[in-house]
């Protein structure tokens, strides 16, 4: 099974016929494997290179500086996550990676309205502005992809975007440091998992390491391809579509070659519906008038998954 490469520019710029053709390619990719590469997604290579430079700057800071921004709770889900702090497979040791989570500047939970919850270092305005600009660009790309999903699934084109308009998305800078000592038994860089939300945009550096599980159970490589972004469907999209679109497990293993001594960087944009959005099976995805899952609110689902991870 190969992860397909889909040119997204005809969807962004084309007429109804070309948009439907791209949406059909996306439908096939999401149905068969849950992963795809989007070429020409609407983000310049210069902006992507710049955010990777900012990410390397942040992770090169001393640990005690990064810990000033430490992740503290599932509701905000912001800040620095140290090595081994997250455990994507609960029965294995903590993952050999560190991360920095950013979302919109204010909380959307009713209990804490309009409170700035991102965590920033003082006197790092350039870092803050560039990371937030990239977050906003990803919001725009995600909305375009969600429009394609809507066309593919035969619902109104704004069906998904209106359920994501609170922009409860998380941008995650990720660093997998060189392995300098023997890992614990069963320890990996990022454990096998599926993503929690609706869709994910993933940007990789050239070191690579991402593996995707095909339906056969085989793990296949998903290397970085220039001028593309990896897009995959998450658990809530799988629930919405009654498994018509699949939420596929993926992982990052510890390299077995010279890459073990190199840093790997990636950037993930996790697209989540509004917290109060009800995730219920789409009419076009019902099988014999039955739904696999009961309705659930997107916020309730996300909190339960984060609580199980940390």
TrEMBL record:
<dbReference type="GO" id="GO:0046872">
    <property type="term" value="F:metal ion binding"/>
</dbReference>
<dbReference type="InterPro" id="IPR050231">
    <property type="entry name" value="Iron_ascorbate_oxido_reductase"/>
</dbReference>
<feature type="domain" description="Fe2OG dioxygenase">
    <location>
        <begin position="167"/>
        <end position="273"/>
    </location>
</feature>
<keyword id="KW-0479">Metal-binding</keyword>
<comment type="pathway">
    <text>Antibiotic biosynthesis.</text>
</comment>
<protein>
    <submittedName>
        <fullName>2OG-Fe(II) oxygenase</fullName>
    </submittedName>
</protein>
<dbReference type="Pfam" id="PF03171">
    <property type="entry name" value="2OG-FeII_Oxy"/>
</dbReference>
<dbReference type="GO" id="GO:0016491">
    <property type="term" value="F:oxidoreductase activity"/>
</dbReference>
<keyword id="KW-0560">Oxidoreductase</keyword>
<dbReference type="InterPro" id="IPR044861">
    <property type="entry name" value="IPNS-like_FE2OG_OXY"/>
</dbReference>
<dbReference type="InterPro" id="IPR005123">
    <property type="entry name" value="Oxoglu/Fe-dep_dioxygenase_dom"/>
</dbReference>
<comment type="similarity">
    <text>Belongs to the iron/ascorbate-dependent oxidoreductase family.</text>
</comment>
<dbReference type="InterPro" id="IPR026992">
    <property type="entry name" value="DIOX_N"/>
</dbReference>
<dbReference type="Pfam" id="PF14226">
    <property type="entry name" value="DIOX_N"/>
</dbReference>
<dbReference type="InterPro" id="IPR027443">
    <property type="entry name" value="IPNS-like_sf"/>
</dbReference>
<keyword id="KW-0408">Iron</keyword>
């Amino acid at each position: 099974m190969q992860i397909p490469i889909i040119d997204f520019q005809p969807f962004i710029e084309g007429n109804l016929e070309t948009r439907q053709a791209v949406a059909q390619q996306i439908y096939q990719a999401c149905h068969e494997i849950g992963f795809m590469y989007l070429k020409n997604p609407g983000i310049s290579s210069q902006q992507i290179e710049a955010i990777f430079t900012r990410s390397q700057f942040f992770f090169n800071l001393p640990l005690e500086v990064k810990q000033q921004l430490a992740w503290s709770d599932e509701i905000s889900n912001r800040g620095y996550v140290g090595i081994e702090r997250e455990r994507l497979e609960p029965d294995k040791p903590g993952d050999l990676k560190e991360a920095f989570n950013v979302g919109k500047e204010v909380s959307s939970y009713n209990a804490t309205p309009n409170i700035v919850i991102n965590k920033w270092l003082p006197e790092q305005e350039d870092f803050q502005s560039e990371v937030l600009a990239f977050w906003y660009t990803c919001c725009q790309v995600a909305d375009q992809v969600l429009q394609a999903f809507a066309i593919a699934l035969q619902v109104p084109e704004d069906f998904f975007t209106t359920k994501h308009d609170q922009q409860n998305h998380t941008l995650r800078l990720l660093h997998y440091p060189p392995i300098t000592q023997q890992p614990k038994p069963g320890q990996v860089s990022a454990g096998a998992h599926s993503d929690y939300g609706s869709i994910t945009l993933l940007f990789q550096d050239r070191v690579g390491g991402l593996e995707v599980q095909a339906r056969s159970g085989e793990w296949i490589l998903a290397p970085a391809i220039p001028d593309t972004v990896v897009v995959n469907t998450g658990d809530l999209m799988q629930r919405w579509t009654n498994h018509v679109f699949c939420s596929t497990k993926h992982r990052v293993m510890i390299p077995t070659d010279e890459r073990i001594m190199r840093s790997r960087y990636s950037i993930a944009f996790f697209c989540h519906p509004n917290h109060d959005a009800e995730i219920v099976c789409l009419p076009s995805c019902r099988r014999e008038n039955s739904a696999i899952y009961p309705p659930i609110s997107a916020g309730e689902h996300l909190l339960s998954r984060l609580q199980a991870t940390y």
